[in-house]
Amino acid sequence: MKYIESKKGLFLLIILVVSAVAAASFAYYISDYYHMDSKATAALESTDVYNVTYTDNSIKFTPTQNRSDTGIIFYPGGKVQPEAYSVISSKLAVKGYTVIIVKMPFNLAFFGVNSADDVISKHPEINLWVIMGHSLGGVFASEYAVNHQDKIKGAVYLAAYPSKNASNATFKALSIRGSLDNLTTAQDISNNKNKFPANTVFITIPGGNHYNNGNYGPQTGDNNSTITREEQQNETVSYIIEFLKCL
């Protein structure tokens, strides 16, 4: 009996040790993320053309003039501080579009795939919703859009592709990646092209990379771009604006 109790005690001890190691590893993993740069910090200040408001779950950019009734929900890339997307969001707000960046649990969209529900419910003034995501955020933005086609009318994949089949989706879609992106490669897009909505427009920005979609980095595994971050974001915003006009 003592031998059996001893084995049970050892087994429980092993379980506790393994659990503790796993918890510590996860805690370290989620605490190590990419932070915004100084330009992103500056873009978080309200101006005469857009206001920035914070909640516990989001960062909202609201145009102060010529406001469209189309709103954009933004799912950030994995392990990237959501504020890092403030510059590209502000550029869209300047053009009249309300942009709401979702703050994901642990900076991972995997844990907040349905976060758009809360955004939509709190903004009845928006008549048409587009969901946009960068990298991992794009994967789960796509998943949300597929499962909520009654709410989402457009999806923008920034250096991203669907992990689940969206080929029969009714919403319009835009895919944008940089030609030097080494994290979402041309081969990745090609291999998953049959999962994109059938009407997807595919854009490649010459000289662009992965992390220039936000204001953070450099990012491990990515290539350096041969155009500036501002140039890449300006091109990206131009394509998004043209896409939004067609919805």
TrEMBL record:
It comes from the Archaea. The lineage of its organism: Archaea, Methanobacteriati, Methanobacteriota, Methanomada group, Methanobacteria. Pfam families: Abhydrolase_5. This is Carboxymethylenebutenolidase. InterPro entries: AB_hydrolase_5, AB_hydrolase_fold. GO terms for molecular function: hydrolase activity. Residues 71-234 form the Alpha/beta hydrolase fold-5 domain.
